[in-house]
Amino acid sequence: MKPENARVRCWNSEGIWGDSTCEKLLEAIHCANCPVYSDASKELFERKIPAEYFDEWAEGVEHAHGISASTGGRLFVFGLCGRLFALPARSVSEVATMRMVHGIPFRRDASVAGIANINGELVLTVDLANLFSLPECGEKRKCIVVCASSSDRFAFTADFAKGAASPDAASLSDADPSDPWYVGKKFKCGGEDAVLIDFEILLGAITKRKL
Predict the structure, then answer these.
(1) What spatial distance separates the first Cα and last Cα of the chain, rounded to whole Å?
(2) What is the C-alpha separation between 16 and 33, in angstroms, rounded?
(3) Whole-prediction pTM value?
């Protein structure tokens, strides 16, 4: 008998991303239409949030910005909708080539793109362009960026990954009152304007949408 964690990951073995030998595919056609796959996606949203998570998040808000935002530490820069954005490098755990993002049944929030298979693990994937209300520029998304905090993990698609940057603290400028809510700091990267995203605020926005 297969262990429970193997059963709920059947889409990677005998399902559509495996050898397609599952008998349920005859009726479901695709794993996304199967109750087993749907139940697994529901469990992703029904996980209990550790009590210490709220303390950690509150502490992050109290300090306003992390080390990278205040002192000009190492940043990860990426392109999205014709603009450059950055996140503290410590918040990015992996950058992978673009892969299919599967919609979540009965989920209507356009900022939640779906779930992606990252090395055999289903990871919640958000649409930053929609979340930030950015106008689409027709660029094809070429990579998927996985972020991780001490208690959460999510991904988002990007037009490209530019790489690492280490701006001096003096080169970081504060956000203007008219800047969008996600702007932590601004700086120049290779002569272009780049926006440093406040990771704690971003994490809070994503948490609200997936609960």
Answers:
(1) 33
(2) 11
(3) 0.62
